[in-house]
Amino acid sequence: MKFLDEYRDPVAAQKLVRAIESMVTRPWTIMEVCGGQTHTIVKYGIDEMLPAAIELVHGPGCPVCVTSLEMIDRAHAIAAHPGVIFCSFGDMLRVPGSRGDLLQLKSQGSDVRVVYSPLDAVTIAAANPDKEVVFFAIGFETTAPPNAMAISMAKRRGLTNFSALVSHVLVPPAMRAILDAPDNRVQAFLGPGHVCTVVGYAEYGPIVEQYGVPIVITGFEPVDMLEGLLMAITQLEEGRADVENAYGRAVRPEGNLASRALIDEIFEVCERKWRGVGMIPGSGLRLRAAYRGFDAEGRFEVEAIQTLESDVCISGDILRGVRKPQDCPAFGTACTPQMPLGATMVSGEGACAAYYAYGRHFEAAPLKVHHAV
């Protein structure tokens, strides 16, 4: 298949690995930002193909993983309301909150529905005028345009029973937070191709200038990843730092102008708490004043939520690239995709789920803990 098979070509991949081997003269630590990139790296063993001097660490690039525990608990509180139809993408249903997940609420009688588009939730609201329909709007810049479209459509159709629980996050401020941390080890980034398809990569230039770290925008296939790594390592070895685009077949410097305009119409920038990372200024999106009537947080008054995080899970350190899944004593034993302690295991894009799916849990040390009910 064109634009797919050639980016999984083992011959091309081996050539890139040899080029990296010939280039490396000292240790380097590189972070891939996107969870989809993490899965490619682990699935194809890219990190194990590289010279020992190159360490790949996994960033906070999974929107399910970084959605704060407070926001998860707010979703559960809203979904438990009588008369509410709570709509979400399927990957959020098993994310553990302080006291269970959305699937448990569904099993107890709450009307929790999986949708495949935010526009589906608008359709449900139109068909159920006697119900409050809430859509869980999470994600990076990638999912902001369709979520903005749903809110815009609900307003145009006069649907007063539709609202959104908005928990959008933005990538560049998170990268700054990682680089500002006193325990940061990241020396270069592989940038998120899907995000840059929407918003471009102009915002990454100031990060490169301030911190002196290379940023290479890459795709998600093995050859994409290896090409991006070669470009990043070349910059590091040459002592320079630039923004480079290794995903030119999909990403333009300006991104998608129509999508950017829609995002700007519906949303404004705000501070946002990231699970495992903390509050990051300017790292989130919220509804603008003209659309604030569609804000589920205000409609259901769930701002004051008390949370209870696992005292064993190290998701936060994993999301910041400080530690890896196998460093967690619960990984693969007390914490599995069937019984996750944290979001990095339950999410399909989480680093822990990737390590488990491709067999790296067999080396983990066993630990037994009691799961919260």
Tell me what you see in this structure:
The protein is α/β, with parallel strands linked by helices and 373 residues long. The protein folds into 2 domains: 5-55 and 172-245, HypD, alpha/beta domain 1 (Rossmann fold); 64-170 and 257-300, HypD, alpha/beta domain 2 (Rossmann fold), CATH 3.40.50. It contains 17 helices and 11 strands. It has helices at 10-23, 35-43, 46-49, 63-66, 69-79, 102-107, 118-127, 144-156, 171-180, 193-199, 204-211, 222-238, 257-266, 296-300, 315-319, 343-346, 351-357; strands at 28-32, 54-58, 84-88, 111-114, 132-139, 162-169, 188-192, 215-218, 243-245, 267-274, 278-287. The strands form 2 sheets. The chain has a 6-stranded mixed β-sheet with strand order 4-3-5-6-11-10, with helices on both faces. A 5-stranded parallel β-sheet has the order 2-1-7-8-9. β5, α8 (144-156) and β6 (162-169) form a beta-alpha-beta unit. α1 (10-23) runs parallel beside α12, α2 (35-43) runs parallel beside α17 and α8 packs across α13 (257-266). It starts with 9 loop residues before the first helix and ends in a 16-residue tail after the last helix.
